[in-house]
Specification:
alpha+beta; 415 residues; Heat Shock Protein 90; two-stranded antiparallel ribbon
């Protein structure tokens, strides 16, 4: 449709220029009638596409009509000798980009047949029979060459402009598909993790329980008959068994983080309060906000959101080192809210930052993390229609920023 409007404008300018400055007589009445029909047709097309789904068949039909309309205009303005016959190429190129193979070839054949019909019509009448020429042969040749250059320039402009627009739209679509594939891959990993955790918890619960019971019985039966070192070892066994069970339980719970939890509207202030509740290092967290942002709300599973934010705060505290503060900062735009957790740590180099969020990838010392927190956080945030951004530079600390749709904006994921 945009190409049509540009074409109509170009036709008006060319007809006006030929009438005013060129010594050529054009059939003004038929040309004005053709331009009026083109305008009405494009307006009708605009109304039609609002009510129907634009398919390849619709696009092919419009382009086939365009080839016929161009043929009529060329016939009225000189026939086959008209240098603007190169505009057939615009349709052919766009058809090759937009249409399936059979329709692209069909459009090319129709364009060739339409151009050929100009020669056939001239053989039945006379060359340029609609045009009155008051030029000698040399002037006609010079005018034809100038017109060829103008036609080539216009065809080149339209081809480059519209093909680039189509290519950009296709690139955006490809990017959307890559993001969708990434999301599907992440969900598959999450499902695999849940299955793995559930299976591990089921298979290991019995032997761990047995070890715990035996260690407790040994402690009770031996009493004071053994050295303190042995009693300490037995206590250590019980503690480590308990830790193993705790890890398995946490893996099972976190792998299905929001599963079964109902969605609810929660304010940013309530979200922060839930995350900081029973947080051991709460005194080190500095909350920054303005009145507008803290009163904003989001919609999601409250417990999972609180656990996610608490996990980010825990990471920040561990990265900052003893005694250094951590900043929890709220922000608000008209349709989105953001929560940023900023630490005072050493930061991360680019190669580490590129892997942050991968399952089981962690920079912490063994025993402090399993490398699942950021993976699960990103999965939950994206399921709610938001984004998790991690920015860091060595020596400048790290910022983890969650962006989510504000309540009532209708941007949440339906999954």
């Amino acid at each position: 449709m945009q190409l049509h409007w540009w074409a109509i404008l170009g036709q008006i300018l060319i007809i006006g220029a030929a009438e005013l400055w060129a010594d050529v007589g054009l059939p003004i009445a038929p040309l004005l009638a053709a331009l009026l029909l083109e305008t009405i047709g494009n307006l009708a097309l605009g109304a039609l596409v609002q009510r129907i789904r634009v398919t390849d068949l619709v696009i092919a039909a419009v382009m086939l009509v365009d080839a016929v309309v161009l043929t009529v205009l060329l016939d009225l303005t000189g026939g086959a000798i008209n240098p603007f016959s190169t505009l057939y190429l615009v349709n052919v190129v766009l058809g090759a980009v937009l249409l399936p193979r059979r329709w692209a070839w069909a459009l090319m054949l129709v364009s060739l047949a339409s151009f050929g019909s100009l020669f056939l019509h001239e053989s039945m009448t006379s060359p340029g029979h609609h045009v009155t020429m008051h030029l000698d042969a040399q002037q006609v040749l010079a005018a034809h060459l100038r017109g060829t250059w103008v036609s080539f320039a216009l065809a080149s402009f339209f081809i480059v402009y519209f093909v680039r627009r189509v290519a950009r739209a296709l690139a955006e679509r490809e990017q959307e598909l890559r993001e969708a594939r990434t999301l599907v891959d992440r969900r598959e990993k999450l499902a695999s993790l849940a299955t793995l955790a559930a299976g591990a918890a089921h298979e290991l619960s019995t032997p761990l329980s047995t070890i715990a019971v035996v260690a407790k019985e040994l402690q009770r039966s031996l009493g004071e008959q053994v050295s303190g070192e042995v009693r300490d070892d037995l206590q250590l066994v019980r503690e480590q068994v308990g830790r193993c069970r705790e890890i398995l339980d946490r893996m099972s719970a976190n792998a299905g983080e929001a599963a079964g939890e109902p969605m609810a509207e929660i304010s940013l202030q309530g979200w922060a309060s839930a995350a900081l509740d029973n947080f051991a290092e709460r005194a080190r967290v500095t909350v920054e906000h303005d009145g507008a942002s803290v009163e904003a709300s989001i919609v999601g599973p409250p417990r999972a959101l609180a656990d996610t934010l608490r996990g980010l705060l825990k990471n920040a505290v561990q990265a900052s080192g003893p005694g250094l503060p951590v900043t929890l900062r709220f922000g608000r735009t008209p349709d989105r809210v953001s929560v940023a957790v900023i630490d005072r740590g050493r930061g991360m180099p680019a190669e580490v930052l590129a892997r942050v969020g991968e399952p089981f990838f962690t920079t912490k010392v063994p025993g402090e993390g399993m490398g699942l927190g950021l993976f699960l956080a990103r999965t939950l945030v994206e399921q709610l229609g938001g984004e998790l951004h991690i920015t860091s530079r060595p020596g400048s600390g790290t910022e983890a920023r969650i962006e989510l749709p504000a309540a009532g904006t209708g941007e949440r994921s339906r999954t």
